[in-house]
Amino acid sequence: MILFLFLLIFPTIISVIDFIAFLITGRRIVNIALLRLAEIGAFFILPYLYVSLETKNDCCGDSAAFSPEHQPTILVIVLLCIIAYFFSSYRKQISTPVLEILINSFLIIGIVLNIFIAIQTKDSFFALIGNLSIILLSMLALVKNQKSFIEQSQELENGPKSKLESFAWQILKLKPIVKFPIIFILCLPILVIITAILLLVGQKPDSIIRAFTDTYKHGFSQWDYKCDNVQCGGHYLCSVAANGHSIIVKPQRRGVRNGHNIICNRQLLISNAFEDLIQDKLPFFFFFFRRHYNKVGNVIHRYYNIFNNKFVSDFIYILMKPLEWFFLLTLYTFDRKPENRIAKQYLSNTDRQQIGRH
Predict the structure, then answer these.
(1) Of 191, 216, 308, 346, which is most buried with the most CB atoms under 10 A?
(2) Eight-class DSSP state of 353
(3) What is the pLDDT of the chain when averaged over all its residues?
(4) Is pTM, for the whole model, over 0.90?
(5) Sign (positive/negative) of CA torsion 306, 311, 313, 318?
């Protein structure tokens, strides 16, 4: 884990030092070995984070940075940007004019894309610093390409060229202040071509945009409204069990949780009373227990269409019986008034205080 974090933070430190040094002195000062290590961290660790950590939209947990349905479009563009960067870093000679335009275009696309990703993941510190390293390294690669073109262009200027190559050559010969804005404009038709190709594998014409917007709780998310009526942290095993057939689960009364009415049976009340007891007697253990138990709730919420079935609820109720007996034994062993604690569960604060006086 320490090595993983190091490979994420280290590229930012190296790229910032190298970028500032270049602005001041006009040359890069970072050792080539350190630079290669920074490149690996920036261009492999960060994309791995986005792809592997969260792959689903989820109202009740950490949600995917990109819409799972449209993520392939972003991954293809990211892959092409990485190829363009490493081609720029390792090559010794400039390429054909058309390929030079494509390489510089993908470097610019990578810079712009990472700015949007940084906004999308505004609450993630590690993501933000990772994006910064990619942006700075890509900008330095653009400068390197410009220098290489100036040094080597005279050797290739008089060679035979097609109309497309001549057009690309004229763009490359322009001053950077004019050249790069034109290449930036050319990024749009390049993205259109990529999008058209990806239509063949099921992506949509607007997948680049929807990869950002069809998400929850991120910078460009447009689906936050879908989480408005979702009760997070409320779908746990005993809660599900209480929704079974009444002849089996034996509901006793209604209760209130997070402002919503729920069905309470004896098993649910005992389980929550046990949790309440643990919180009182062993608060440190409670936080550990709760953090892991919340993961169970998130899984149930994700597949609630299955757990909402009454026969499934009956099965879970029966499955939870041994735990219910263990919870009840613990309550009667360590609580002076176990039934009062059980009765107070899922009541309003006023009703709980009334029971507490008895």
Answers:
(1) 216
(2) H
(3) 81
(4) no
(5) negative
